[in-house]
Protein 1
Amino acid sequence: MKIDSGDYVLDYDERSDKVQIIGSLRLNGLEEYAPVLDVLRECLTSTTAMTVDLSTLEFLNSSGIAMLSKFIIEARSKDDLSLTLLGSSKVPWQGKSLKNLQRLYPALKLIID
Amino acid sequence: MTDFNEVIGHFSDLRNCLTQGEYLHLGFQPNSSPLKERWRNNGLSADFMADYVTTFFPKSAEDPNSETRQIEIKSAVSFIANELLENAMKYSDPSLKKAISISLILEETRIVIIESNAAKTVQARHYRDFVQKLEQSDPMQMYLEQLEAKALDDSSSGLGFLTMVNDYDAKLAWQFQSSEEQGIITVSTEVSLPI
C-alpha cells in the first residue's frame, strides 16, 4: 500500500510488516493525520513484529509528533509486540524527538544510524 | 473594557530596535485565502527562513563540526518558524483582518524568532492562561504528559512549544498588548535559540 501526497510518501510493505515514511509531514492536526495513523494501525493489528522506518523523514511538525505518540501509546498496550523504530542521525529532529517517544514505551526498539 | 498588557518570560522585543544586523520580516494576511490553501505557505516560509540562516553558518573544510552545526541550526529554525506560523494560522481570528507577522533576528549568541497576530480579548486571555502554565511547568514532565494526553485530544500548540524547549534548548516569552481597537489584543510569541 502506498500514499503519495507530493510532500510525503508512505509505503506499507505487508510482506515485511514495515511502514516507511519519506519526505516532510506538516499536516494540520490529527484529523489530517488520520490516513497515516490508519496505515500504522493496520500494520499493528496484522503482526506481532513491525518496523516503522522514519530515517528519510526530513521534517515532522508537532501534530505529527502527537500522531506518532498516539500510535506508540496504542502499540504499547498490545501484548507480545516487537516494535522497531528506525531513524537517522543525519536528520537532526530524529535524535531528539524519537528518544522522547521511547520514554513513552521503553520496550520500543529505537535504532538511529 | 480594561487594557490588557502583559509580558510572560523575558520578552526582548527586538523588532522595535532594528537598526543594523541581519533580520527577516515576513507578513501574512490570514483572511486572504482559505486555511487549507495557506497551510502550505507555513512550510515554505519556515524553510526559507531556515535556508537564509545557513548563509551565516557556512560549512568549512577545516572544521568538521561546521556541517553538523549548520544542519542542526537549519533544522531548529525550520521547526520553530513552522510551529509559530501553524499556531498563528490556527488561532488568529481571520475576521479581525489583521496581519500575521514573523521576524527572524540574528544576534551574536542567539537567533530570535518573533511571531505576532491579533486575537480577541477572550482568546488572548485563554492563551495567556495556557502559556502561564507552560512557563511554570517542568518542561520535560509536561511534554510527556502532553504526549499521553494527545492520545485523547487534538490541541497540539503546547507540544510544539515544549518540543522547542526540550529538544532545541529554546527560551520562550510572550507579550500581550491592547491595540487601539477596543477588544483586540496583539499577541506576540518570542523564541530565542542559542547558537
Note: The longest strand of chain B covers residues 110-120.
Protein 2
Amino acid sequence: MADVTGVLDLRRSPLADTAFGVTSPGLSLDELPFRSLVEVRSPEPPTAPGLVWRLGPAWWLVDDSPTTEPALEVPLADEVRAANPGCPVVDVSAQRTTIVVTGEHATRLLAHGCAIDLTVLPVGEAVQGDLAGAQVVIGRTADELRIYVRPAFARHLAAWLTDAALPYT
Amino acid sequence: MLRIPCPHCGERDETEFHYGGEAGVDYPADPSALADDAWAAYLFLRANPRGWFRERWFHGSGCRLWFALERHTVTDEIRSA
C-alpha cells in the first residue's frame, strides 16, 4: 500500500487563503474545515453521532468531527450505514464547508441577507434556503449557528459575512 | 416578490423556487398509442386562465421537492391546492 502519511495535510479548505474570521464580544465567525458530513435518506431521524439536521422530508444531514485517517469515504458513513440498515447513506463531506456564527448578534447578522426568520429556529433544527444569494443549510445548536455552504460559494459568503459583520464588531 | 408557502419549509421568497407550469398534467399511460395531435396537446397545450390557476412549483433552495398550489393570475393571491 502506498504511503499516505501526511496526505490529510495536503487538503485545502475553501476558505483557507482568505483570512476569514471575526472575533468580537458580540459576534464571532469562523470556518470549521473538513467536517465529516453524511446525507441519509430515512423517514425517521437516523441514529448517528454528532449533529443530525433535518433538511426536508426523509432527508437528513449528519455532521461529525473531521476524519483523522486518509480514506476514500469518511468512516462516519460506514458507521451511520451500520446503525441505519436499509437507509441510503452518502458521504458528502466535500460538498460543503462549515461556518460557525456565535454571539448575541448572530441572528441579526444573518437577517441582513436571509429572508428566513432565524429567531424562531429551535435548537437542534435546521433550515435550507438562500443567504446572500448562496444556497445554504443553517442549523442552530445550543450556542451557535452553523452555516453549511458549497465550496464554490464559500468565498463569496465569507466576504459578504465579513462585510455585514462590520457594524457588530 | 411573491411569498410562496412551501408545504415542507413554510413561507419563503419566490427566488428560492422554480416555476413548473400547470399542475395535474399527467404523463400519458401509453404514449406510443397517442395520435400526433394528442401527443402535441400533452406536450404543448396548457390552460391560461384569467383567475385561479393550479400550478407546480419546485423549492430548489429548500426541500428540493415539487408541490402544487393555486395562484390567482391577476392578483397573485396564493392559496394551497
Note: The mean pLDDT of chain A is 94.
